[in-house]
Amino acid sequence: MKIKILWVGKTRSSWIQDGISDYLGRIRRYCPVETVEVRDEKGAEAEEMRRRECERLERQIPAHAVVVLLDERGDQPDSRGLALQINRHREDGITDLVFVIGGAFGFSDQFRRRGCLLSLSRMTLTHQMVRVFLLEQIYRAFTILNNEPYHHD
Prior knowledge:
Layout: E1 2-8, H1 14-27, E2 33-38, H2 46-58, E3 66-75, H3 79-91, E4 96-101, H4 109-112, E5 116-118, H5 127-145
Parallel strand pairs: 1-2, 1-4, 3-4, 3-5
Helix pairs in contact: 1-5, 3-5
């Protein structure tokens, strides 16, 4: 299984870039992982911005991928629950698992129906920090699945 993480907009802070690099390196010990940054939209109404960004995101998703959209209205599994979901996809023979972090105004309604929804927290988090938090949780999931000591119950 390959994991692909899509997000809208540039990663601006160096400490966030460092965190992304760190967790990508850790995840690569378990499976191939790639990140793709799509251009954010500026200067339009929110709905039009969402539509254009989602079109860009859609072009990056492989045809038969399982898609997980990070959305505040999504399910909130604990770390073990996320690990079980990832493992279920792997056992089902899914070749491409794609996580998508939207732009400042989120996803269009049409795109939101494209995949299952996942929320990392009920609190509002910056789209920049969510990148690191998601990668850390994916890494944690693999350590749980491999019975490694990183995760403590």
